[in-house]
Amino acid sequence: MAKDPQQRHKAQNAVAEAWKGFYGTPEGRAAIAELMVWCNLYQPCISNDVMEMAREQGERNVALRIVQMIGLRPSEAPVDAWEDSEILDRMIGGHR
């Protein structure tokens, strides 16, 4: 990533636009939906094991960063979870 703050900002915007573009396609939205589920976005980290909790929280932070770049608010995540699961179900159902 660029060291100059303006260049870094431009680079971050370009990456965010790429994520938005990917999310704007049915395949991209399905892929990101699966990533959000895998990264524990829709459920809290509840492990009693410190290492497991740290791993889950790290995965969740990745999901939250992507959500931020796409331009969604975390409060929108539960609604998106239902929509995204429907997309995944349709994709899986379409390949039977």
Please render the helix and strand layout as text:
Layout: H1 5-23, H2 26-38, H3 50-70, H4 77-94
Helix pairs in contact: 2-4
Oligomer: single chain
Tell me the distance between the termini.
43 Å
Stretches where pLDDT is under 50 for at least 5 consecutive residues are none
Share in β-strands: under 5%
The helix/strand order is: HHHH
Portion of residues within helices:
over 70%
Cα-based radius of gyration, to the nearest Å: 15 Å
* Shape verdict: flat
- Biggest beta sheet attributes: none
**Helix vs. strand class:** mainly alpha
**Overall pLDDT confidence:** 81
* DSSP E strands, number: 0
Number of distinct helices = 4
Please name the defining characteristics of this protein.
mainly alpha, 74% helix, 4 helices, 96 residues
Structure description:
With 96 residues, the protein is mostly helical. It has helices at residues 5-23, 26-38, 50-70, 77-94. The radius of gyration is 15 Å and the shape is flat.
What's a concise summary of this model?
The chain is an all-alpha fold. 74% of the residues lie in helices and 0% in strands. The mean pLDDT is 81.
